[in-house]
Design brief:
This protein is α/β, with parallel strands linked by helices and 450 residues long. It contains 9 helices and 25 strands. It has a domain of 224 residues. Helices cover 15% and strands 32% of the residues. A 7-stranded mixed β-sheet has the order 14-12-15-17-25-24-23, with helices on both faces. Strands 2, 4, 5, 6, 10 and 11 form a 6-stranded mixed β-sheet that branches. Strand 24 and strand 25 form a beta hairpin. The longest helix has 18 residues. It is globular. The N and C termini lie far apart (48 Å).
Length: 450
């Protein structure tokens, strides 16, 4: 995006986080311009390009929509807007999309993310867009799940709505830096992929049936109990699991409807869970998964425990002979600058991990004066499924690192980029073949009983 323009010059949101190919959706747009156009780009890999134009609208009349609405009980911000245009998706392939809004004068642009989701995932690697986490950090209208009008946590929202644009300057949420590099790499390799959101996984118990692997991307913090259950069931039937970030499955949430549609509200009271009317009526608490009154530590899913932030440290190799590192040339103790950050995970002996654990990297870090370590692990489960957890939030971003170190990639250089790309290619190729077991080779055929 070359010219995002002034704040609120043009912005919008889709009435659905995902649709099946051919399903229509409503687009809600507010702009100060007399007219604007919508261009739908499928993100991926096109002979080196990261996007392909799939559809473009005719010029559409622009209006300035109503200001934000705030729910007094939860401090949730919502855009109570009228639909601007109904978009048909006939002929749009499955995948991750950014809709670009362009004002008629050419002075402003914004993105709107959308997933054209897969109906079935059997035999495919499943890319899961972490839309609930994008929304948790969205401060459009002045509040997210961390802070509100006072700038402190006591003014934060207790729920956030998909019925609003993303406040980030380009409007794409967290997609472009935590997710798009992996999508491009996976499509360049040419493996069979499926595309869904965390909302879809939570809503449809059988969606992951027969999937060769499930990919959690760079920042996938907020999960509903249903999403967690469905992923764990798939893993325990033999679907591999790649956690290419840190802080994964840390916050427990609940989806509620909005005036626009189902599952458009993300509820997370955190430490104030006892005040949640849903919890009082018998629903699970919307606090951290690891905490009472319903402790379900994230290590049960992927082996590691979130340990803190901020850190900036080298990633230090501990198992150079592991099949994941084949072709990297890495040796024991080799370090890759700045690859660990800004949040990190580690093994914690107080919390059990499923299956057999192999430590791939053990990286010394200092977090708020405390000396500890970040770890990457590979797990082999009784089902034959392999689980790889990077233990660092920068893994997906590192896939873009080329040439000299620069601030764009937190100082990560081409050597770090080449290392993460090689490991990730090894991972994706092995995980696409079925239960990867300890060797990276399928332990059984697709859909065979465990």
């Amino acid at each position: 995006m070359k010219r995002p323009g002034a704040a609120h010059a043009v912005e919008g949101f889709a009435g659905r986080t995902s649709v099946l190919p051919g399903e229509p959706f409503d687009l809600f747009v507010s702009t100060r311009s007399a007219s604007y156009t919508v261009s739908a780009y499928r993100m991926g890999w096109y002979a080196g390009a990261r996007a392909r134009l799939v559809w473009r609208s005719a010029p559409l009349p622009g209006i300035t929509q109503a200001p934000p609405v705030v729910d007094q009980s939860t401090r949730m911000v919502r855009a109570d807007w009228r639909p601007s245009v109904r978009v048909e998706t006939t002929g749009w392939p499955e995948g991750c999309y950014l809709l670009r809004l362009d004002t008629a004068d050419g002075r402003a642009q914004r993105f709107v993310p959308l997933t054209i989701r897969s109906r079935r995932t059997a035999g495919r690697l499943v890319v899961v867009n972490a839309v609930a986490t994008w929304q948790a950090y969205n401060r459009w209208g002045g509040a997210d799940l961390y802070r509100g009008g006072t700038g402190k946590s006591d003014s934060r929202s207790l729920a956030v709505s998909f019925d609003r644009p993303y406040a980030a300057r380009n409007g794409a949420g967290q997609f472009l830096f935590f997710e798009a590099p992996l999508v491009a790499l996976a499509e360049r390799i040419g493996l069979p992929l499926a595309y869904v959101t965390g909302v879809d996984v939570a809503r449809e118990p059988g969606l992951l049936h027969g999937a060769s692997g499930i990919i959690s991307l760079g920042h996938d913090e907020y999960w509903s109990p249903q999403q967690r259950l469905h992923v764990m069931r798939a893993r325990d039937r033999g679907s591999n699991l790649a956690v290419l970030g840190a802080n994964c499955c840390y916050r427990r949430i609940r989806f509620k409807p909005s005036p626009v549609g189902a599952d458009r509200t993300v509820v997370c009271f955190k430490e104030d869970y006892a005040a949640d009317p849903g919890y009082r009526s018998g629903l699970p608490p919307t606090n951290d998964f690891r905490r009472a009154p319903l402790p379900q530590p994230e290590s049960e899913l992927h082996g590691l425990m979130y340990d803190g932030y901020p850190v900036d440290a080298p990633y230090v190799v501990a198992a150079p002979s592991h099949w994941l590192l084949a072709g990297t040339g890495a040796r024991y103790g080799d370090a890759f600058a700045h690859l660990v950050g800004v949040e990190y995970d580690r093994l914690n002996p107080a919390f059990a991990a499923p299956g057999q654990v192999e430590v791939i990297a053990r990286s010394p870090v200092v977090c708020k004066g405390r000396r500890t370590q970040a770890e990457s692990v590979y797990l082999t489960l009784p089902s034959g499924a392999g689980v790889f957890a990077t233990g660092t939030m920068r893994w997906v971003e590192a896939l873009n690192a080329t040439g000299s170190a620069d601030k764009t990639n937190h100082g990560m250089d081409g050597r770090t980029g080449a290392f993460t790309r090689t490991v990730t290619e090894n991972l994706l190729r092995a995980f696409s073949q079925g239960p990867a077991g300890p060797t990276g080779r399928p332990t059984r055929g697709p859909d065979q009983p465990t």
